[in-house]
Write a structure and sequence with these properties.
By secondary structure, the protein is mainly α. The protein is built from one helix and no strands. The protein is rod-shaped and about 195 Å long.
């Protein structure tokens, strides 16, 4: 058996330690590379899965959108038909009421014209009588005015000039 000296032992220990650090470095580098590739693969799988779910949800939402749009369109058509029917009924009712009101106003107008004609004739007769009385009074006042003027002229001697 061979004996080794102390410097040889220390050299062997240094070489062994360097070898171990080299192996540790290579193994850790390979481990990190493998880990990165696995994480990258997992990331790609997750992205693909999310895209698939996203596409499926988009399809469902678009289907619901089409169904909702068609339902709303149907309801809109029903509402337009119902409103059109109500509009026709209201128009007919309003036209009927308009005719009734016009007939009533016509009847009231005729009654008022007949009543006012009689009152107008009576009022005109009264005014004629008052006018005749006032004209007679004015004629007397005109006669008195002439008499007063003649007296003033005679009294103050204005008629002698």
């Amino acid at each position: 058996m061979m004996t080794m000296t102390e410097p040889q032992i220390w050299t062997m220990m240094g070489a062994f330690t360097a070898l171990m650090f080299g192996v540790l470095t290579v193994v850790s580098t390979l481990f990190v590379r493998i880990l990165r590739s696995e994480v990258g693969g997992l990331r790609n799988e997750m992205v693909a899965e999310f895209r698939g779910v996203h596409a499926k949800i988009d399809g469902e939402i678009n289907g619901l959108r089409r169904e909702t749009t068609s339902e709303i369109g149907g309801l809109r058509n029903e509402m337009h038909a119902a409103i059109g029917g109500l509009r026709g009924e209201l128009t007919a009712e309003i036209a009927g009421l308009r005719n009734e009101i016009q007939a009533e106003f016509g009847a009231v107008r005729t009654e008022m014209q007949n009543g006012f004609s009689a009152e107008r004739a009576a009022t005109q007769a009264e005014f004629r009588a008052v006018r005749a009385e006032m004209q007679a009074g004015f004629a007397r006042i005109d006669g008195l005015d002439r008499d007063v003027q003649a007296l003033v002229k005679h009294t103050f001697g204005l008629d002698r000039e």
